[in-house]
Amino acid sequence: MAKLLYVTCNLKPVEHSCGLSIGRAFLGEYLRLNPGDELHCLDLYRDNIQRIDIDVLNGWEKMRAGAVFEFLNEDEQRKIGRIWRLADQFVEADKYLFVTPMFNLGFPAELKMYIDAICVAGKAFAHTPNGPVGLLRNQGKKCLHIHSSGGFHYGGGEDHSVPYLRSIMNFMGIEDFEALVVEGVDTIPELARQFKRLATEKALYAATRF
Ligand SMILES: Cc1cc2nc3c(=O)[nH]c(=O)nc-3n(C[C@H](O)[C@H](O)[C@H](O)COP(=O)(O)O)c2cc1C
Q1: Is the pTM above the cut of 0.90?
Q2: Residue 20 Cα, ligand 1 centroid: separation in angstroms?
């Protein structure tokens, strides 16, 4: 039985969102084929994603200097505790499905906040004399990124969404990364419908191999 973590970062209701509808189609097919799997959902706009702020930095600094967690002040404990829970949830999953829209050549800031929360030294990666090493490698973990954009950027140097998520997954040791990109969703409606239909078919097929 695998644990699938479904991470969405989109303000729209599912029925108005191309990316979320494709994500839902994927999930429906995946769960039909893998009814015993455990599904965990995170909505990065709804759920409390703790950003790295001055309390977090101060708490980390105190612990680096030898303080135990209980020695931190209340805000530091609460915020670092939340970050650790997010990081543990990420580490414990076997499969990851991200759904994002393109915002200004990247993805929304909430996903970066989430990445900063889960990329914890000692959990997701380790510092070694030879540089950082991903701790999630060789565990058969895999990631699918469904990404939608109004125009067309994928594969061009200006696209900082899929390539960045792929890099950070690789950094943590998750090498099996696939992207399903649906572009042109804000172009002519008939064309956009075709792009969405094609992407949904690809998602349904991807669900059979995930
Ligand atoms: C703040 C903002 C920034 C956006 N920036 C881009 C962009 O840089 N390139 C692009 O192709 N589309 C851009 N779009 C359009 C969205 O990518 C597109 O509408 C979205 O992917 C559709 O989301 P959906 O999958 O929820 O339907 C932007 C939209 C918003 C709201």
Answers
A1: yes
A2: 13
